[in-house]
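Shipment paperwork, digital attachment
Item: protein structure file
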Amino acid sequence: MTRDRHTVLAPTTPPAAGSPPGSETPEEVLPGAAPAAPATPSGRAQLFARLRHHRRLLVPLAVAVLLLQLAVVMITTAVEQTPTIDEPVYVGTAAVYLHEHSLRLNPEHPPLGKLIIAVGVAVAGPHFDRGYAGDQSHVGRHLLYESGNDPWRLMLWARLPVIVLTLLFGLVVFTFGRELAGAVGGLGALALYSFSPDVVAHGSLATLDVPAAGFVLTSVWLMWRARRQPRLYLPLAGAALGAAVATKMNTLAAVPVLLLLAGLSVWRARRTAVPGARLKLLARAVAGAVLVALVAVAVVWASYLVVDPRLRWTPSAGEVPAVHGLRAQLTSLLPFPDAYRDGMRMQFGLENAHWEGFLFGRHYEGSLWYYLPAALLVKTPLGMLVLWAAGTAVFLTARQLRPAAPYLLLPTVVLLASAMDGQRDFGVRYAIFVPMFGAVAAVGVLELRRRWVPVAAAGLLAFVAVSSLRTFPFYLPYANEAFGGPTKTHERLHDSNVDWGQDLGRLADRLRDRYAGQRVWLVYKGSGVPSYYGIHASDPRRQPEGKVHGLLVVSDSSVAKAQGRLARLIHSSHEVDEVGHSITIFRR
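Attachment content:
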């Protein structure tokens, strides 16, 4: 379906009036200048060849520039941020994989994402204390801060494999867009992907959200390609699907849809007008879906066997909650190792726990079904929202693009519906697949045959780039201009949308530069150790309110959900500073 939308026209000199067809008016020759060579057919062919050669070079050059921009902002962000809340868990688990070959930590997530992080941990070569027996929340902190390691260096190396993977997913986005709408479409899709603040924010962390979503996108792209070569691409699509399921369990919601797409790809590849062939074609489609499922299951098993070839798994008492009803039946049917099924039971247990949320200034208990769409509305550049919506509409209505609509839209809708049904309103990272699939869906606007469409699309894309670059390097708390930008995000959202513990190092620098020697009271939401960075503070919630004087430093997530004594302390103080749009400094 690839179409070349830019035909290069050679400049010609119009014939003089009354001249026979094909004649050309000779160009004026200046005195002393050599006469121009006649434009022979062979000369025109050489000109066309040179233009096509230069154009072929421009496309990979543009891809390289976009990916370089993405790499620079992600690496810069990774260098400057302290560990977020989840990262020490994954880094500590990766170290346990390397040194103990044990599945005992973080069983609620499959191993593959942490094995990817383990590549960077292995290169960093930190000292690992085999005698430490803490739980998963303490092992990472012990590794980073209590084992003689440099947490800045270790975290950068742990983040680099995810950064590389995010860049590779950018190539998938470009290739998918190019196959749907030509080179311009591919570059537009890659630009939207590389300037997405959410992709930058979470692609620069040693977490699992971007790898899982990227593997789903890769599987869908390979299934799209399988419409022409199913024998080549279906096994690869199954491997990518297995990688997603072996990284995060929430991707299981997409498995039925992707198996359906696998069958659809075989059906379209093998369909024929021969009477009586439909039954045979249906059998081949089912076989294709089964092949994808078998390969995916094999990848999941392989990820566990890499960690521990003996698959030793003995959960501690009370670690795995009891699950009943349909959830219990579905979990028992999963063709995966016992550790995976117990991890799924833990996820169901987490869904049943008591959680709190914050949206548009409202602190609430439980969850809101519309939380994720609302959060995406806040944290997505305005131009990107317009291009997503327009491209999606075209995919649903344009005859030439309609065959691709199920591949792009069905997985996105199913995954988003599943995430909206969850009980943890913690951030758009649970829907990080939306900007990935949305970048590809946006190329549909190029199908609109209007002269103003390319100009409008380019303008919206430029608006996206400016909005994204203006928030550098504070990508986690990004909000678009309609909601006040990153300085106002904490008034509307919390947790990983704003404040995930990433600015502890910046806080240390600010206190040292501007408030040296002053008494500090700290309420910090994160996994970092303040004293390591030179922050010596007390918890104001453990002292009588009358004794709390000086600087009151509070993470914005704690400000959003403040109650009781902390709320009174904040209300009786005045704001004097902020750090990274995620930590507020008050004075009492």
